[in-house]
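Exam review. A common question shows you a sequence with its structure tokens and asks you to describe the fold in words. Practice with the pair below. Do the first one on your own.
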Amino acid sequence: MSSWSIARSGGKERWSARIGLRVVLGLLAFLGTVTLQAAELDYRDFTLENGLQVVLLREKRAPVVVVQVWYRVGSMDEVAGQTGLAHMLEHMMFQGTKSLAPEEFSRIVARNGGTDNASTSQDYTNYYIKLGADQLDLALRMEADRMRNLVLREAKFKSENKVVREERRMRSEATPAARMGERFLATAYQAHPYGRPVIGWMEDISRLSVADLDAFYRRYYAPNNATLVIGGDLEFSEAEQKVRHYFSPLPSDPHLKRQRVAPEPYPATSRRLDFLDAEAKVPLWMAGFLSPTMTDGAAGNDPFALELAGAILGRGLSSRLLLAFLGTVTLQAAELDYRDFTLENGLQVVLLREKRAPVVVVQVWYRVGSMDEVAGQTGLAHMLEHMMFQGTKSLAPEEFSRIVARNGGTDNASTSQDYTNYYIKLGADQLDLALRMEADRMRNLVLREAKFKSENKVVREERRMRSEATPAARMGERFLATAYQAHPYGRPVIGWMEDISRLSVADLDAFYRRYYAPNNATLVIGGDLEFSEAEQKVRHYFSPLPSDPHLKRQRVAPEPYPATSRRLDFLDAEAKVPLWMAGFLSPTMTDGAAGNDPFALELAGAILGRGLSSRLYRRLVTEDKLAVSVTVDYASLSRDPVFLTFHILLAKGAFPARVEEAVREEVTRLGREPVPERELAKMQNFLIAEHVYERDSVQSLTWDVGRAITSGVDWRQFVIHFPERMRAVTAADVQRVAARYLSSERWVVGVLMPFPTPKPRKVSE
């Protein structure tokens, strides 16, 4: 189950841990049995005199550049007693240089419509910036600056050290699986630093000092210990000139030499860890086999063979271990400890108690999305989502997120067709802080003209980089517009560029006053809480907010079921391979008259297009070699009927007409013949397992509860009773919904094709 949503993108780009049916074209290509070739890369590489290695990758499909700096230093380079040093320094790399104030780096990137972030592993530390192609100078100048001019301030170090310790509590100590993971690594690696956590042990993090970081920075952060990779819309000569301009003046460190660590010895016998955890709800079994990697020149082709062996055993629906597992177990959703109530002002509240970690997740869901916009104002809901971080009567612009970060938390937001969602994740002792700030911006937002102009620029750049950047993205927008001819689901959530450019503060203020009220919202809190105390806090902060007695969300007439098929043939000069899509208008869980049909459709879509053992994958990829990937998307929690859509990326030289005929035959067969019980049970178990395991995360759990309520679904039926509802679907149900909804006589087909290469003309022509 998935839905289209756009998360706020200014500043640091945040990664979602949720696993949905997002369309990732080509994701499964390398697992198929077709003969695939890697696309030819247009690149240039060189090394500066100071030792900086540089790789330029030219890819002109979008006016975007990505700048990455990779330092050859990670947690394996730390000494005992200073674990977490590499990761701590990564945090401090955003806290100012001789020319940039603390946090100014990310603010400058965000103001220019970009995103930035970093990551630390055992082996490396990586920093990246994504910006418009015309901002390459900016990215290079700032990266060169912090490579040698970092300023480590004691006050910022203390603040970031607190953030990292809270990060450790919430990630590494929060769940039985996380605690088990650390102990497993320590058992597996008994001589090598890979056995230590990248984030570090808590006592080591607490002991770190500015002097420790300064010594580590001076030892490892130099051009002759780094690689600069730039990819995107660039010209080699111009990009190389810019790189030399900004990085050549930086001095190398002639004494810098990374110490080689002796590899972990291959175990002479097996080792075992039996770990008991009072908070574990289900057992977890792990096994590891020490193996060579591609860095071992003597290993030959062994790493590739091991990659393949691992995939055969444990990658995807057709893997040996998963096939054995799916046929033998019956999964149940874990019992939820919850309380729900509604305040007098109409705010719906759900409290979910999950005490495995001292963390709370606070989510506020507003029943408003892009479907509530009027023609000419597309993108309004998403634009307002951005402005909700730009200050209230009591908070300055951007102060909301800074306060959350200072207290070791994370925050973000997302907008879809049906809803707008805001979330905060903090330590359990910070629940008051989260509730106070969310209640504040629910009714006290201040829309400032200067901040609006800045954020509008960010959103327009976001649209260029996401919605207009690739042939697949452009095709996606046109496909939706073809599929939904009467319903606002056919409009992009981010909005059309001309509409975004025309939006004003007055437009946002009217939209905010119309839809942002407690009687149009749901508050979901999950984590380490006590019901009575949490309810008291909710009532304290939210009960004083007035409801809006005139607020009533307009009901939009659903998209009529097509009387005939529709077709979109889309030629794009930048497309490299054809993409074939087909959508079937289908009911969702919000339709009370649909009964169990949405669950049966979820199952039908999975049988046809989920994973390597699905019918379309086996036929199109494995057998006929017409495609390299098959995915399916069905947003079953949407407010109105949606198109269950298949996305098929064609193999080189394959004809879309052959793919279309094969899909037509398979959907017709599903509607005429009952699914064999073994195939049905396997896919039911897979969908149930996916549902159950996703909800092991408090953040995912609160997300699904809020999304269901906001869509108009009894959240218990979706979150708690999903396994029994899915298991109740019969082969006859799948056959019935396939015959009723998955008809090629009423489908919407879209074909993305490259422009045909013109044949050479004769001189006489």
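Now try the second one, then compare your answer with the model answer below.
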Amino acid sequence: MRVALRVEVYSLRGLRDGIPRLMRLFSDYQVRASFFFPFGRDLGGLMPLRSWRARRHVGARAALYGTLLPAPALMHESVRLMRLAHQNGHDVGLFGGAPAVWQQRLANAPADWT
């Protein structure tokens, strides 16, 4: 049986803490995955309900990014981790500059926009 793993990163904390941990875990078990990285900003605060639920995982500050706190750029951290993922044999891809904004607009977007 074959299984495909897709890892998407939406937050600064996910980049800094989650991705390195996953790469170590995958390395220990000789597992490969497809990692998708954002190049925009962490605008998690623009999705208050999701941010509130995820605050334990991403931190309380992340719930304020893009609203009361400046949204941190994810590009520099993404580039570093993309290189590391590629060196470790994983597939690497990009997705929307600001996933939170894209998801927020998706709910009311016309069919030709999606």
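Model answer, second protein: The helical segments are 12-28, 48-58, 75-87, 99-106. The radius of gyration is 15 Å. Full marks require stating both points clearly.
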